[in-house]
Amino acid sequence: MGIKIFDLKIFLEACILNGLIKTLDEVKEIISNLKKKDFYEFSEEDKDELFYFFEKS
After folding, report:
1. Which of 9, 20, 31, 38 has the CB geometry, 3.0–4.6 Å to 15, for a possible disulfide?
2. pTM for the whole thing?
3. Residue 27's domain spans which residues?
């Protein structure tokens, strides 16, 4: 059907890679807000993968 599906982690990764999210602090703020406002929680593994984009710089 040609439908692409993205979960939140993949969406955030795409935002990082395309320069829409520029700092580790921005990622942490988004994760915090998702937990507070939507009760969405990332696994530690997912958070580590998102944080890795900034650690390798």
Report:
1. 20
2. 0.84
3. 8-55
